[in-house]
Amino acid sequence: MASSSSCFLRSILFSSPTNLRSNYSLPTFFPKNHLTCSSSRFQSFSVSSIGTGSSKRVPDTRIKVKSMATTDIGKEEKKRVEIYDLEENLAIDLAKFTANLSDKFCKERGAFTVVVSGGSLIKSLRKLVESPYVDSIDWARWHFFWVDERVVPKNHEDSNYKLAYDSFLSKVPIPPGNVYAINESLSAEAAADDYETCLKHLVKTNILRVSESTGFPKFDLMLLGMGPDGHVASLFPGHGLCNESKKWVVSISDSPKPPSERITFTFPVINSSAHVALVVCGSGKAEAVQAALKKTGDVPPAGSVSAEDELVWFLDKPASSKL
After folding, report:
1. What keywords are assigned to this protein (predicted)?
2. Among positive and negative, which fits the CA dihedral 311, 305, 205, 53?
3. How high is the mean pLDDT of the chain?
4. Do residues 314 and 280 make contact, with C-beta atoms less than 8 angstroms apart?
5. Closest CA to 194 of 30, 41, 46
6. pLDDT tens digits, residue range 155-182?
7. Is the pLDDT at 213 greater than 90, yes or no?
8. Is 115 helix (H, G, I), strand (E, B) or coil?
9. Residues 130, 239: contact at Cβ < 8 Å?
10. Strands, DSSP E only, in the chain?
11. SS3 of 239, please?
């Protein structure tokens, strides 16, 4: 376990990546038995007390079809594919989908645990920072994580934290202590261990649930993008990490896409999520979409994604052109 600062302490000052270090000086040493994310804040209450006030109603959160076709690939249960003529309509319905789940879990368990990737996914979340969602979602109950991250400074152009902060996190009132960034000052291996320890502590404090069927953490919603090669998170085609079956978070030092050093959730964690949205746009990803959904040729990592309750593929028309 990493002996450096916790991801909770690193997220406690939720300021811009540029000002992060000047505004908050991290302790230089923690005892070896110091749990990642450990804090009297977490030890003093359960999930039911997260946030203040009652859950807010999100108006009309049902997904509506707008110039869209729903396609069944085989007879796989718990999976559906939504195809949109316009990316704008995809973004609108993705916001409704997310807001609906936020409302559901905030009412049921007092918290909503959300995981995002980087890349074009963050742009597709833009409707959540607009009316009516920015004012109606109970942001105080959100807990925000990354499915993967590049081991670079938070103000670096390759940082998934910076991407999410600039386009999303800086525009919504999620409590600073509920945003869980990696400790990029560590090596990739140590940062992965640190983040996994953070997740295990959140399980102990009942913020994160555990899947009864797998024993891995069960996030409420996993929001994923996909690369042109069909990779998800930092799980790339042909890489041995795609077969990891025991660890929650692993490091990668030979990523085929720069930067080379990253951390990533494993497939058992991704697939233990209650709900997963796989958001893919653009004709450059059409072949990977075809291979992932129709299981043709060398099935890319995206074809291994599943969910315990529901997996939804959100595709624009160009991305679905080879289905």
Report:
1. Hydrolase
2. negative
3. 83
4. yes
5. 30
6. 999 999 999 999 999 999 999 999 999 9
7. yes
8. strand
9. no
10. 68-71, 79-84, 112-116, 142-146, 148-150, 209-210, 217-218, 221-224, 249-252, 262-265, 275-280, 310-316
11. coil
